[in-house]
Amino acid sequence: MGEDRRADIIQxxxxxxxxxxxxGLVDERLVNHGERxxxxxxxxxxxxxxxxxxxxxxxxxxxxxxxxGAYKTDEIDKMVKFEADNVxxxxxxxxxxxxxxxxxxxxxxxxxFHHLNYDRYDKVESDFKxxxxxxxxxxxxxxxxxxxxxxxxxxxxxxxVGSRFAPEHVELFLKTxxxxxxxxxxxxxxxxQEIEEIQKKLVLSPADIDxxxxxxxxxxxxxxxxxxxxxxxxxxxxxxIARLLNYSAEDKQRIYYGALLHDVGKIAIPLEILxxxxxxxxxxxxxxxxxxxxxEDILRGAVADDVCEIAIRxxxxxxxxxxxxxxxxxxxxEGQRIVAVADVLSALRQRxxxxxxxxxxxxxxxxxxxxxxxxxxxxxxxxxxxxxxxVMANADSSCEAFLSVYDNLMLEYERIYNLxxxx
Length: 423
Prior knowledge:
Layout: H1 3-6, H2 12-24, H3 28-48, H4 53-64, H5 76-80, H6 87-101, H7 109-112, H8 129-147, H9 154-158, H10 167-180, H11 182-188, H12 191-201, H13 206-221, H14 230-244, H15 249-260, H16 271-274, H17 282-299, H18 305-312, H19 334-348, H20 360-372, H21 378-386, H22 388-420
C-alpha cells in the first residue's frame, strides 16, 4: 500500500502519542518523567550542533521511552519514587525491548548504559556513550527536581562533573538552560506545549508507524509471558481470513491494525487479573471488561474510525449480548466479525499456566457452537473451519517468528546482566 493510502489510517505523530498515552495508563508518573527527559534532551541536541533535526527527534523519543523496561519489572513504584537500587534490571529490559521490538533499535544501546557513571565508561565499548551520558544527566536533573519540589540543585550536578557526568554535557545543559529556560518550562508546565510542537515535526515512514504500533502491542504482552503470543496470533488469523475473503491490500491493512490494537486497553488491567490461573470472579471479570472502553479512549481520534471500531468491537456478539456496547448483527461489519472470531480462536489455541492449547477438534466444536448460538459470524466460522489447517499454519508461522525473538531476548537478558552488573 502506498504511503498516501496508509496515512489515512494513522499519522506518524499519532502513533507515538498512542504509545505514550497507553503506557501512561500503567503509571503516568513514569511516562511524565520520560517526556521531561526527552524534552531536555531535545533542547540540548538542537543547541549542540552535533546532531541533525531528524536525529534530535529520534533521540527525543528515546528519552521518552528510556524507562520502558520498568514495565517488565516490579520496580515501577520504586522508580517513580526514585528509590530503585538496582538500575540494571530495567536498563537491560529496556535496551532489549527497544532493540528487538521497536523502531528505535539503532540507538537502543544508549538505554543499556544510561545509568552508568561517566568515569566507568573506560570499561565499555559503545558507539552511543554520548547519548547515554546525556540521558543520564537529564534523568538525574529531573529526578532531583521532582524530589525537591521543582528546585534545581546546581551543586548536585556540578559536584558530579568528571565522575558521574561528562563535563561537556554539564556545560551544554547549563548553556541550553540559559538559552531556552528549560527549568522554568518544566516547572510552569510550558514544556508540554513544546512537546506537542516537537511531535508535529515527527515524520515517520509507514514502516516506522507500523513498528511503533507493534511496540505498543508487544509492550502489553511484554508484561506477561502468558499473553505474549495472543496479539500476534490474533493478527495472523485475522489477516489470513481477510486473504481468504479476497480483501484488497488496503482492506487487509485495516484488518491488520484493528487486530494489532484490539487489546491495547489491557495495559491498564492488573497483572493478577491478566494472569489469573482459572475462571475470573464476577468482580475481576468486570474489571477485565473495562479494557475495551480503555482501548476506545486510547484509539478514538488517533486512528481512522473504522480501524478503531474493528479494534473495540471484538467482544460484541451477533445476538447483542456482548460488550462493551451490546451491539447486534446488523451493526457489526464483516471486518469487525473477522477480528472477533480471530480473538476467540487465538484464546482457544493459547497455552496458559493452567491449561494446554485446545486440540483442533475441540476448537472446531467451540466455533460451531458459538456460530449456532448466534455469538460469532456463521460465514466466517465456516470459512475458518473449512480452511483450518491453512489458517493456523500461517498464523503459527507469524507466532514462531515473534516467539523466537522473545526467547532470544530472555536469553540475552541473562548474558548481559552477568556482564554489566560487574560495572
